[in-house]
Amino acid sequence: MAKAIMIQGTASNSGKTFLVTGLCRIFKEDGYRVAPFKSQNMTSISFITKDGLTMGRAQAMQAEAAGIVPDARMNPILLKPTGNSSSQVIVNGSLLGEMSAIDYYAYKDKLRAEIASAYESLAAENDIIVIEGAGSPAEINLKQNDIVNMGMAEIAKAPVLLAGDIDRGGVFAALAGTMLLLTERERSLVAGVLINKFRGDAAILQPGLRMLEDIIHKPVLGTIPMLDVVLEAEDSLSTATNSADSAIVGDDAFKESQYRLLAEKLRSALDMKQIYKIIDEGINAI
Known about the structure:
Blueprint: E1 3-9, H1 16-29, E2 34-37, E3 40-42, E4 46-48, E5 54-56, H2 57-66, E6 77-83, E7 86-91, E8 94-100, H3 101-107, H4 112-123, E9 128-132, H5 150-156, E10 160-165, H6 171-181, H7 184-189, E11 190-198, H8 202-216, E12 220-225, E13 231-232, E14 243-244, H9 246-249, H10 252-269, H11 272-281
Parallel strand pairs: 1-9, 1-10, 2-9, 3-6, 10-11, 11-12, 13-14
Antiparallel strand pairs: 4-5, 6-7, 7-8
């Protein structure tokens, strides 16, 4: 059974998809069988697998970075928006139906078994699963019956790395505020935090990192610079400035070069020795 690591973020567009993609490539380069996983993805951009099933394009990209064929098990629940408050609900690659937001919120706990089954099946075939959360784990109005952030971490027994986007400003408040809004059990699942999309002199940032560690009692495991790496956007509404256009999407050689570059940059920015230790020891050691 695979070991796991989960990337969550303080908000949407905090860089979770990029981080999962890069970690998938790093683990592949290091000789591990690795697969991405996102229990629930809301996006208008989908991918059709070789067996005709539908999954999120981001998880297909992450599979490519991992050097494996995209598989609908990597994204068992896909929500494709059809309006401001309704979506098509796709389960294990097939359309279940269209639901309003309130109907899906009431129904989603019934999908927990489907998510667990997909995850366990993938975990049986790999050494490491890199799990991506969605939005923020501190959406306190949505935490009941969560299946995509801390709820998914519990299913997978996965330690969590929490990423914050410093380019937006307020990253210390975002990380500390997120930790404040988590339950004691949820905080115990967080193994460390990441500062993403940093510009400037890292020496100036260091005092803030030490103060943050004193406040949240979790280590900062990396400061990732703003990267000049071009990947596909997770969604058509993405605000990412380094997302690929349609011409690049079909350029396999270019995509491969970007996966390698992303892995190289993340290796230099992350405490990979500690991340490997976290993966090896699991949640019991946090």
